[in-house]
Design goal:
- This protein is mostly helical.
- The chain is built from 17 helices and no strands.
- The protein has a single domain, classed as Na+/H+ antiporter like fold, CATH 1.20.1530.
- The protein starts with a helix and ends with a helix.
Amino acid sequence: MGFLGWTAAVGGLLLIMSLASGWISRGPVTTFGLYLAAGVVCGPWVLDLLHVDLVAYSTLTARFTEIAMAASLFITGLKLRLPFRSQSWRVGAVLAFPAMLLTVLCVTVMTHYITGLSWPLALALGAIIAPTDPVLASMIAVNDANDDDGLRVALSSEAGMNDGSALPVLMLALMLFTAHEGLSSEAIWHWAWRDVVWALLGGLGIGFAMGKGVGLIATRFHSKQRSVAPSDFLALSLIALSYAAAQSLDASGFLAAFAAGVGLRSAEVRVVSLHPPEDLEEGRRPPPAEGMVNPHQRHSMQAEMPRNSIGLMVGDALSFGDTIERIFAAGIVMVLGITLAEHWEPMGLLIAAILFIVIRPLAVYLTTMGIRVPHGRRLMIGWFGIRGIGSMNYIAYAWTHGLHGADANYMTNIAFTVIVASVVIHGLTVSPVLHWRQSRQAARAQKE
């Protein structure tokens, strides 16, 4: 097909997905699952219309997945309107660090003894498939700033923070893989300080400071100017600036993007607390600012109130960022389906089964024993560990940092198969499990 043919095909697919969105949301198959299927149909296994060599374009793959990840992490952080003393942050941190590292350890040992891969490659596979995905996890993530559901908050905060522990482990695995004479103590110390401690603290600090600072400054500027112009590019600027600033200082760009969203939300909370609505009952927490304005009715007098000004900004940022996230996610998942024929590895199904059914649930259960998390929620958190675009980004990162050879290709093919299995299996189970959970909650509420 020519350019016009492909343009029409893409437009037709998007039109079908848009018109059928209501049926899709109520059905067992998710939107991302359908995009994956569309990619498989266009790929070598079915119509053989498209061939995509991800290895040859590994740098481009890394860049596209970085954009999708950064946008998704920013939106995730912006939707989390929780006090920092909330236990939900503690649960997310436990899932993102102790639980994630325990998962990496178990996957590493399992992979080494089942597949015979070397310890560095087994460790790299663990780092690639252990973290949950912030993009595809949107199916079970928080819906908006009013959403304080314990399950959704835990999974969202985990997906937002687990790059702080997963990427350093992948870096260590690549160092071990490329160091034929072993690592010196100086190299290990440098990794521990720069890639672990500084990447974590620096990324969070840089992102939060930029998000909160820009939010407060922009609110002041807009309210003084009575500006009601759309603030769509505020999200794009914060994502780009926080990510670039952190990466240029050897900190974690992904954590910075997440923290920038949290920082902008913190600025919104501060502005609303200083300028609460007149009808707010005493002792009640003010609602999100974006819920108190109508973005379709913008008046200059409305923007004079700082609360309304930041409400319009946050609402525009959420809308624009969500659009960017969905566009990139749809394209990347389709590419995953197209390339599945070249990267399919049956061993990945065994690894996926053990990871989904045994390792992830066990790691979650053990690391959350000291936290007051209901048993049912703990089980669902253990099951909903969706892998996706973040893992693809790690694969591309590994390719661009010296991961080559037959064994390395075998390992990455296993990882691709695990990602596809996660998109399909978790996608098929998310709606039934959440509907069952809602019915149980409704029945419990009626009894009370």
